[in-house]
Design brief:
Oligomer: single chain
Number of helices: 33
Strand order of the largest sheet: 3-2-1-4-5-6
Shape: elongated
Distance between the termini: 82 Å
Radius of gyration: 35 Å
């Protein structure tokens, strides 16, 4: 039957001449050899012009063209071979045999044994498609196993003293990794994928391009494990489906145990899924417990709700001092405020209002448009860093949902509201309304910073330009900050009055997240403090609560304010004009702090520095530090504890109820000191000396983006 359907005549004499039992002549051999060469050359050109140099180009070429042409060519060459070898077979059987034999090519096998009468031309084309199949199989094996193997080799032979381990692939992590690598060091950076359902696999190529390592929990062994497949059949995914990725996290199998046990390490869980982050933390803590890690290790976890520490209290307690929570709104506020300190604004625009006695004779005013989580945090952070002797901090808050937001704010920060009094104004208005512009008009003569955080990128940007248009009618300094969430929007701002903040690319930096320099200096601040505390009351840094540690870091953040008040900010070399009077890029806050610290070190002793700036300035800087300390407690929900309400024999604070007797003015501290027999003022007075001594020792240098 097959011989009648596909006979020698049907296939044509050229097929018989080329692939038949008789040997082909030299013409057919040369022609087919040239044709095979032309085919290979065409493939090379196709790769060169359409795939070479592109991310994943070779892989896409293999999948897109080479695989299809190899399968098609294999089927054709095998069909001809089977037909000429066994002409009695029908067409269907021949095609099935050809498909089977083509598939065998990809596992480095062939069916030449079954095709007895192959000749030179058959072997030419068979060789071409066999090599193609081998290339495809090899690339798949390397991609599936080889990359992981090479990554593990890099891990084993990396001897960096600092480990950075990211659990999950996300933009926050890759942004932070870029910043860490930009500091001219050689850290060990590894990303573990397939531990989070929020993984963005498209980032893997970018991470590898950075020089970081990407490893996966999905090994060849668990690739065939059905436990992951079973989750598909659970209704709505189930609770286990949400956390299925984390069950494979095993630091020993990932060859990370030795590095974590012998090197200082930072571990990051930075996805925007708070629930999954804490579940991953729980799994990670079990891993660390089994490893018995005793070296310095910190776990950085991103949260998105203000109550995370209360909701996940049991998990946090297990983490002990290893855990650092990064509330999204707080790190956004930290980025904005630390880059735009109120004292710098006043110095640059109203220099005559910073007096030689370290007082400021001008109030600072901030307007918050949008009082959600970000707006709330920004307001409180500005209040903390905007404390100066001789001036008042003013705030105007505008939001269309103010009835609810105002109630929540007063409930949490009643002490702050009481302290601000009439210097804090709330307005329930929609942006763009007539009432909104009336408020702008009322405060146009005094507002310094306008912060817009409406939770919608497009609306925030529109409002920023609308406000800028309105404010341009008034010839006075002001700055507009608009909070944006998308990384790829508004990257370059030509308008000097508008600045974007809050993107992952802005906030996930080493200076804001790991804050190694700040922690080191904060430990020094704490060490200086406990010198004046009785030994029974002293606590090591590791024993301090997260709140107390952050309080010491706040001292470090406020150091630039104190240096400027001390008169170390000079227009020479610090302004924004070059020698020809042309505009140049503004010096960063980090660079300015380090420059002023250099000037501080030019004094041969602290006594000389004191004598230079004067005793009155020294006293006012101490009072400023007390105001900052008060502000830090108030923005974290603490309230003044009246002496008359404190039971006899009690301490000066009640941490559970957030009550503190020292939340009073500088003059009122005398009565508190008499009551508790402790010289609280001495701690504030020692602050500037501590800055000087750290600067002299070379410890007081903050590394920022420009370092």
């Amino acid at each position: 039957m097959v011989s009648s359907m596909i006979s020698e005549e049907a296939t044509g004499s050229w097929v018989s001449r080329m692939f038949g039992v008789q040997p082909p002549d030299e013409y057919y051999l040369s022609w087919n050899l040239a044709l095979a060469g032309l085919y290979i050359f065409a493939l090379v050109l196709l790769y060169k012009f359409f795939y070479s140099g592109k991310s994943g180009g070779f892989r896409h070429f293999i999948k897109g063209w080479l695989l299809k042409l190899t399968i098609l060519g294999g089927i054709i060459i095998y069909s001809i071979g089977y037909h000429l070898n066994e002409p009695e077979l029908n067409l269907g059987v021949i095609v099935l045999l050809a498909l089977f034999s083509t598939a065998r090519l990809f596992i480095l096998g062939n069916d030449l044994v079954e095709i007895h009468h192959h000749n030179g031309i058959f072997l030419i084309w068979f060789s071409v498609f066999s090599v193609s199949a081998a290339l495809i199989s090899t690339s798949v094996l390397i991609n599936f196993i080889g990359k992981s193997f090479l990554s593990w080799l890099r891990m084993v032979f990396n001897f960096s003293k600092q480990n950075y381990v990211f659990l999950g692939l996300n933009t926050a992590g890759i942004t932070l990794a870029k910043d860490i690598l930009s500091k001219n060091r050689s850290p060990f950076i590894v990303f573990i994928q397939d531990v989070s359902s929020t993984d963005d696999k498209t980032l893997a190529q970018q991470i590898t391009a950075l020089g970081a390592i990407v490893i996966s929990t999905n090994t060849v062994s668990n690739f065939f494990n059905l436990q992951h497949e079973e989750l598909i059949f659970q209704p709505n995914g189930g609770h286990d489906a949400l956390h299925s990725h984390t069950q494979d996290l095993n630091l020993k199998k990932l060859f990370l145990s030795w590095k974590l046990k012998h090197r200082r390490s930072d571990l990051f869980i930075l996805s925007d899924n708070e629930s999954e982050n804490f579940h991953l933390l729980s799994v990670l803590l079990k891993n660390l417990e089994s490893l018995k890690v005793k070296t310095e290790l910190k776990i950085h976890l991103r949260t998105v709700s203000p109550n995370a520490s209360e909701v996940y209290k049991s998990v946090i307690a297990k983490a002990s001092e290893r855990l650092v929570l990064h509330d999204q709104a707080q790190i956004v506020a930290r980025q904005l405020v630390n880059d735009n300190l109120p004292i710098i604004w006043i110095k640059e625009n109203y220099p005559n209002h910073i007096n030689k006695d370290a007082t400021v004779s001008r109030d600072f005013t901030v307007m918050i448009i949008g009082f959600g989580l970000n707006g709330n945090s920004v307001f409180r952070k500005f209040y903390e860093q905007g404390q100066f002797v001789g001036s008042r901090f003013n705030a105007i808050v505008i939001d269309r949902d103010l009835k609810r937001l105002k109630g929540d704010f007063i409930n949490r920060y009643s002490g702050l509201v009481a302290e601000l009094g009439n210097n804090l104004k709330f307005y329930d208005e929609e942006v763009g309304s007539l009432g909104f512009y009336e408020i702008l008009k009322d405060y146009s003569a005094k507002v310094d910073y306008i912060v817009i955080s409406l939770g919608n990128d497009d609306l925030s940007l529109k409002t920023a330009f609308d406000v800028k248009y309105f404010m341009s009618r008034y010839q006075r300094p002001y700055k507009i900050f608009t909070q944006i969430s998308r990384n790829n929007i508004f990257l370059n701002v030509s308008d000097e009055n508008i600045k974007v903040f809050g993107r992952d690319s802005d906030v996930f930096t080493e200076e804001i997240i790991t804050r190694e320099s700040y922690y080191s200096l904060a430990k020094s601040v704490h060490a200086a403090y406990i010198k004046g505390v009785s030994e029974s009351k002293r606590k090591a840094w590791e024993q301090l609560s997260n709140f107390t540690q952050e309080s010491n870091i706040s001292v470090v953040e406020h150091s630039l304010t104190k240096l400027i008040l001390a008169g170390l900010y000079s227009s020479e070399g610090d302004d924004t004009n070059d020698e020809n009077g042309d505009k140049r890029e503004k010096i960063t806050t980090t660079a300015l702090r380090n420059k002023l610290l250099e000037r501080l070190c030019s004094f041969t002793s602290y006594d000389q520095f004191q004598a230079t700036i004067g005793s009155e300035a020294i006293k006012n800087i101490a009072i400023t530090e007390h105001l900052r300390w008060n502000a830090f407690h108030l923005i974290n929900g603490w309230v003044r504890w009246e002496l008359s309400d404190i039971p006899t024999g009690s301490r000066n604070k009640d941490e559970l109820r957030k009550l503190h007797a020292c939340l009073v003015s500088w003059d009122e501290l005398d009565a508190v000191m008499t009551r508790f027999g402790e010289d609280y003022k001495s701690y504030d007075e020692a602050c500037l000396k501590e800055i000087y001594e750290n600067a002299i020792r070379g410890h007081y240098s903050i590394k920022g983006k420009d370092e």
